[in-house]
Task: inverse folding
């Protein structure tokens, strides 16, 4: 189940990374998050909580477009469902 959640999250993060209307620092945070989720040697809950903290911080960025903020909120809610 966690892998399905990570797959959905990765698709959303990829979309954010490819969206040139999103500021570069936010695209970079999406890329960093995607890299963290790909580290299979870490526990799923640790990967999820690390990404949640990164994305939670950038979701409050005043320069983030509304559509990107909504996508990040979707990612956050998806990652909050990740369990051991």
Result:
């Amino acid at each position: 189940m966690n892998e399905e959640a990570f797959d959905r999250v990765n698709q959303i993060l990829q979309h954010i990374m490819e969206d040139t209307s999103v500021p570069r620092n936010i695209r970079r945070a999406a890329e960093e998050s995607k890299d963290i989720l790909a580290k299979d040697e870490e526990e799923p809950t640790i990967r999820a909580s690390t990404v949640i903290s990164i994305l939670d911080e950038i979701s409050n960025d005043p320069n983030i477009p509304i559509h990107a903020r909504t996508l990040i909120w979707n990612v956050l809610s998806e990652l909050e469902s990740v369990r051991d």
Helices lie at 2-18, 24-37, 44-59, 66-80. The domain at 2-80 is CATH 1.20.1440.50 (de novo design (two linked rop proteins)). The mean pLDDT is 94.
